Structure formats: C-alpha cells, structure tokens
Amino acid sequence: MEHVSDAPKVPVKAAGPDWITPATEPLDPSIPVNDYDGFAEEYSAENETSLLNAYIERPAMVALAGDVNGHRILDAGCGSGALAAELRERGATVTGIDASAGMLAVARRRLGDDVELKVADLRDPLPFPDGAFDDVMASLVLHYLEDWGPTLAELRRILKPGGRLIASVNHPFVEWISADPRPVYRETTSYTDLWTFGGKSFPLTFWRRPLHAMTDAFSEAGFRITVISEPKTAPGAPEPFSGLSFMCLVGEAAG
Ligand SMILES: C[S@@+](CC[C@H](N)C(=O)[O-])C[C@H]1O[C@@H](n2cnc3c(N)ncnc32)[C@H](O)[C@@H]1O
C-alpha cells in the first residue's frame, strides 16, 4: 500500500559530531571502556559550547530545575561541572559526584574549593545520609547504567520526601531508530561508540532501553513522574535543529 504524507522529511537526529563513530570491530580488551579520565579536558571543552549540550540539554535541565535558590542539590555524574556552576549561580548549594577523577579535576578548576566534589560510582551505595538533598540532577549519565534499579533507589533514599530527581538521557526512540542494525525496541541492549580526540579513540558503552522501562524504573524506585519532555534548542543556538536528541524525566520522591 502506498503511503502518502505531507510531513516534511527531517532526520531523526542531526548527523552526530564527526568525532563519534559506531565501534564496528571487536574492542581491544586492553583499552578501558567509558574512561572519561582519558579525554576529560577535550570532552569538557566540547561540552562547553556544543549545540547538543550548551543549547539543548543544559538549558532544558536548568529550566526544569526552576527556582533553586537555597536548594541542596546533588549533581550526579556532574562531569566537568558546567551544570553545577549554573545551579550555584542561581543560589543552590551543589555537591557533585562522578566516576571520573579527571572530570572532577576539571570541575574543581571551574568551581573552586567551596563545592563538595567526590569520586563515586552511581552503581554503588552513595556516601550521603537519607534525605540529604532537595534535588538530584542526573545529566546524561543514566544511559551508562545497565540496571537503573539500585541507582534510582539510592537517589530516592538521599532525597527528602517530595524532592525531585531531574534526569536527561539519550532519547529512547532515537537510540532505536538510528541504530543499524535496529535492535528490538522492547529490550535493554548495549552498544559502543568510539569518541575520537587528538587522533586517539576511546570506547564508550551505552545502554538503550524502551520508554516504559525508564518510567517503570522511576515508579518502582518510589518516584512519581511529573514531567517527560523532549527539549528543543534554546534561543541563541548557532544552528537550527529540528530533530530529537534527548529526553528529560522529572520524578518526585514519594513521601
Ligand atoms: C556525558 S558526560 C555528562 C557530564 C555532565 N553531567 C554534563 O552533562 O555536562 C557523562 C558523565 O557521567 C560520568 N559517569 C559515567 N558512568 C558513571 C557512573 N557509573 N557513576 C558516576 N558517573 C558516571 C562520566 O564520568 C561523565 O563525567
């Protein structure tokens, strides 16, 4: 049957930056995967000004956070601290954790000494007491985790009742439609990209999962989802972008 549509043909997502390519060969086991320490400075510089980070993802997260004056915020997977800096400017007291000491070193340089920064893996129990934070921001980090269950339970534990988990992840539809070969949508599966900086390639392994797996994981950890959004470009973006890139979720910690 012929399908006629008046919809303009637009790419699902913009052609990714040329420094990201799918890994096609078996990985060299001697090269560590997701080793942000190896390219912390280069990634941080890219993240600072790129369309996807500086004009889509970060403004969306700041807008979702809203008025954070006086809030205690954990930036989980804070990387080099660009979001933490924006939240601090808005009056929040920010703590940052990240698995990469190299990324935290860049964050320390940006943020100075009066922000608590700790090396911590989001797959492990977190070094904070119950109810320590008003909000947790998890920017572009959950898609590195195969199992969200233990992590979301920990984030729920360290939030006060009614506190918010505000997360951004690679959009599940983009991760499905743009993959070749296309994976089974309903399954949680991994894939590896190579990120190339200065002629050296670093493997990054991501986990894609269907939308229902994300919302189920939030609910099972005790979060009531209040927002699911698909951010678009903020004003001032250097180029137009009509595709899909990220999805944001806001979960409110049940009392
Ligand atoms: C794409 S960067 C995003 C950094 C920052 N949130 C931002 O948006 O600018 C992903 C970050 O997640 C961190 N990360 C990856 N897996 C992690 C884990 N299991 N626990 C803690 N941090 C992790 C990386 O070290 C890296 O700094």
Structure write-up:
Residues 1-26 are annotated as: Disordered. This is Ubiquinone/menaquinone biosynthesis C-methylase UbiE. Keywords: Methyltransferase, Transferase, Ubiquinone. The chain is α/β, with parallel strands linked by helices and 255 residues long. The chain has a domain at 40-171 and 210-253: Vaccinia Virus protein VP39 (Rossmann fold, 3-Layer(aba) Sandwich). The chain has 7 helices and 10 strands. It has helices at residues 40-49, 51-65, 82-89, 101-111, 149-158, 172-177, 211-220; strands at residues 20-22, 72-76, 93-98, 116-119, 133-139, 159-170, 189-197, 200-208, 223-229, 246-253. The protein has a 7-stranded mixed sheet with strand order 4-3-2-5-6-10-9, sandwiched between helices. Strand 5 (133-139), helix 5 and strand 6 (159-170) form a beta-alpha-beta unit. The longest helix is centred in the first third of the chain and has 15 residues, at 51-65. The protein is globular, with a radius of gyration of 18 Å. Residues 34, 36, 47, 77-79, 82-83, 98-100, 103, 121-123, 139-141, 144-145 line the site of S-adenosylmethionine.
